[in-house]
Amino acid sequence: MKTNEITAVQTAKSLLQVKAIKLNNENPFTWASGRKSPIYCDNRVTLSYPEIRTYIRQQFVEALNEYFGDCEMIAGVATGGIAQGVLVAQDLCKPFCYVRSEQKSHGLTNQIEGDVHEGQSVVVIEDLVSTGKSSLIAVNALREKGCKVKGMLAIFTYGLDVALKNFAEAKVELHTLTNYNTLIGVARDENYISNEEMSSLADWRVNPEKWSDERIAMGK
Predict the structure, then answer these.
(1) What is the pLDDT of residues 136-166, one digit of tens each?
(2) What is the architecture, at CATH level 2, of domain 5-212?
(3) What is the DSSP string of 2-35?
(4) Omega before 182 within 30 of 0, i.e. cis
C-alpha cells in the first residue's frame, strides 16, 4: 500500500478542517460493531466543500494514472464511494458503476448497478477502509461478473493489521490518499490534540479491541 506523503498531509489537514474525521479520547465514539473508538470518520462531509472535493478527485485521478494506468470502468463502493467514483469517472470520461454490500431483495435484485461486461478492467473507489470487509465484498462481486479488478483507491485507511491481511489474501492492490499515522501527526502539529491524547490514539491503533474494552470498563 502506497501513500504520497505530501498528498497525505494535505488530505489529513482537509479532513480535520471540515470535521470529516473527529477525534475524542474522553468521550469515545461507538461504532456499529459496538466497539469504542477515539476516532470517527465520515468522508462524505468533504462533498459539501467544492475546493476539498476537487482536490480529492484530482489526487484520485493522479494516483489512478500512476499506480494502475488505463482502465475501462470506475466502480464506487456503496455508499461512500459512489459520489467520489462518479467524479473520477467524469474526469477520465470513463463508464461508472457502483456496488452494493449485497443484492437488492426486490426489483432486478442487482448488487452491481451499471452496465458491466465480462473482461472489463476496473479500478474501485472507496472513501474509507477499516477492516476492508465491505470494500472486498465489492471487489468479489465485480470479479464474479468477470471483471478484472486492477486495484482500489481510498481517501483514508486506519491501517489496521486485519485490513492489510485481508487485502493481501484477496490479492487486491490498495492505495490511499492519507492514513491514520499521518492524520494523528497532523492533528498534533495543528493542535487538535495534545501529546497525551496522541499517545492514547497510538495505543488504539496498536490494539483497538483492548482500547475499547478498557473504555467500556471505565463506563465511557
Answers:
(1) 999 999 999 999 999 999 999 999 999 999 9
(2) 3-Layer(aba) Sandwich (3.40)
(3) B--HHHHHHHHHHHHHTTSEEE-SSS-EE-TTS-
(4) no
